[in-house]
Amino acid sequence: MLLYDIDMHDFRIAKDPRFDRLPCIHKGTYADDCIVDRVTQMWPDLIRKAKDGDLNGIQTYVFWNGHEPVQGQYYFEDMYDLVKFIKLVQKDGLYVNLRIGPYVCAEWNFGGFHVCLKYVPGISFRTDNEPFK
């Protein structure tokens, strides 16, 4: 889990047993989940409510298939404007936990994987097979 401390302008890595070689600086994060791509107009209100509810962070997915709608063409505007979202969270002094895919589930089309992957010969998703690596 990668956290960005807005006030201290540094990154912190929360311990995950799968990555035991990473440094761990853990302050304790009480985050709420906000799927930013679904509620753009509600961002400020949801962030304030999270803070009022004594949470110190907002967690959200980064949707590959939204940020790269066509292979090689990137999009970070409107509901995919992560910088705008992070700045709004920063304004209220909260942490941001970006859940970077590629797989995100979240009842999202194709799990957030880019649709071009479906045409890769021999691919088996979320496995250790060569085409998926």
From TrEMBL:
EC number: 3.2.1.23
GO function term, MF aspect, one: beta-galactosidase activity
Family annotation (PANTHER family): BETA-GALACTOSIDASE RELATED
Enzyme kind, highest EC tier: hydrolase
Protein name per the record: beta-galactosidase
Superkingdom as given in the UniProt entry: Eukaryota
Catalytic activity: Hydrolysis of terminal non-reducing beta-D-galactose residues in beta-D-galactosides
Glycoside hydrolase 35 catalytic domain boundaries: 40-133
Range of residues in the leader sequence: none
